[in-house]
Amino acid sequence: MGITNRNHMKKIKWVVYLLTVLPLASMAQTPSTTSETAEVTPSSGGVFGGSKNFRTFSIGINGGVLIPSVATGGSNDFSKWQVNYGYGAYLKWQLLHFLALRGDFVAGKLKADNSRELGNGQAPNSPYASFETSLKWSGSLNAVFNLATINWLHKQSAATLYVSVGGGLAGYNPKVTTPGGVTTEYKPSGVIKEFFVPVGAGLKFKLSEGVNLDLGYTMHYLDGDNLDGYNKAPSKDKYAYGYAGLEFSLGSRSKPQLQWHNAPAVMYDQLEASRNQLKLELDAEKENNAKLAASVAKLQADSDGDGVSDLFDKCPNTPAGDKVDGSGCPLPKPDTVKPEVKVIITEDDRRLVREAIANLEFATGKADIKPSSFASLDRVADLIKRKNLSLKLAGHTDNVGKDASNMILSKNRAESVKAYLVGKGVNPSRIEATGYGETQPIATNKTAAGRQQNRRVEFTIY
């Protein structure tokens, strides 16, 4: 029978070992948190930010009663147990919202006697009338499982139920008293040390962000029959500790406790915040689109139907059917057109055009005309309108860049000059704009000076 009990206790030890060591192994495999985690508020620690956003360490102190019996029943060596004081403390490390490791310390007094008669009218067949054991210390490592952390009904939990199991070592000193009143120490030479398995349950209430009320009950199953000073093998002694205490969470006050973390509620809040932010962004985009649509409608408006936008129409309310120039002003009607007179282009006219070519500058790699070129272009526009001349614009580039890109750039620059002159009242039908890219250089492209000469727009009046 003794060998069977020893084998049974070995199995219990292995179960305790697995329950305490496996949570540590799972913790070691948990991915580390990233540095991009958002700032935490006391009401929420995020869903996927990792445990560093929470308070995970706590200490507890408690007091209560010790009895040499447990709720699961079983035989006892004395017929009537007595209630005595007990006290304890613990340090807890919350690994996950539902799992923690807790190191417990418990001490106190245990008493019982044979004053209660059993069913047959007899007390247990014991040579002792009573015992008193001083539980000097007991230390255990426990895995604590929260059973009601995730709450689908309420965002904030006020209470949670937990269970615990582990293994530890107790040191105690029993004294026994005979029916004649003689009291002796069971082990005069010192303290008895025995392995035990604690199994407990409790209810915890959240009083504030840093303080919890802890109500619990733990049964301690000893690997021996020495607790009451009466070794009646093969039975094993056991005792229970019922307590009430306070638990204090350690760490920054800005962080919530991990054990109260309700992941579904926090995830809902985060999704709701994201939805609201997305709605704000969509509303802003709708407003921008409305402004853009209004601008396009304004740009397309042509009240007099002459083909020139109201924004650029210098002669609004043009009669229907009248032909207009680029600024929206009517062209001379056929019956009022004067007989065409041969126009003589003077040397001064050519000099004015050469000056416009020499002063013409564009933004680097673009078709935007620099303001320094406007004055000479204005004189060319006045000349064309005054003498009713025609103008050919030929855009050219150097050989830097792709051929296709240079061809587009030369065409755009010629068109840019045409648009400027039309904006000054020149009849667009009098201007021809062509781009030749890098196909017609007038100097070598091997030098900076030569490339500068090749980047040009030529004016030809006739």
From TrEMBL:
Gene3D superfamilies reported in the protein's UniProt record: 2.40.160.20, OmpA-like domain (3.30.1330.60)
Membrane topology: Multi-pass membrane protein
A Pfam family per the record: OmpA
Any one Gene Ontology molecular-function term assigned to this protein's record: porin activity
OmpA-like domain sequence ranges: 349-462
GO biological process, one term: monoatomic ion transport
Coiled coil: 268-302
GO cellular component, one term: pore complex
Alphabetical UniProt keywords: Cell outer membrane, Coiled coil, Ion transport, Membrane, Porin, Signal, Transmembrane, Transmembrane beta strand, Transport
Source organism superkingdom: Bacteria
SUPFAM superfamilies in the cross-refs: OmpA-like, OMPA-like, TSP type-3 repeat
Record-linked PROSITE patterns: OMPA_2
Location(s), subcellular: Cell outer membrane
CDD domains: OmpA_C-like (cd07185)
The keyword Transmembrane is annotated on this UniProt entry: yes
Region forming the signal peptide: 1-28
Protein name: OmpA-OmpF porin, OOP family
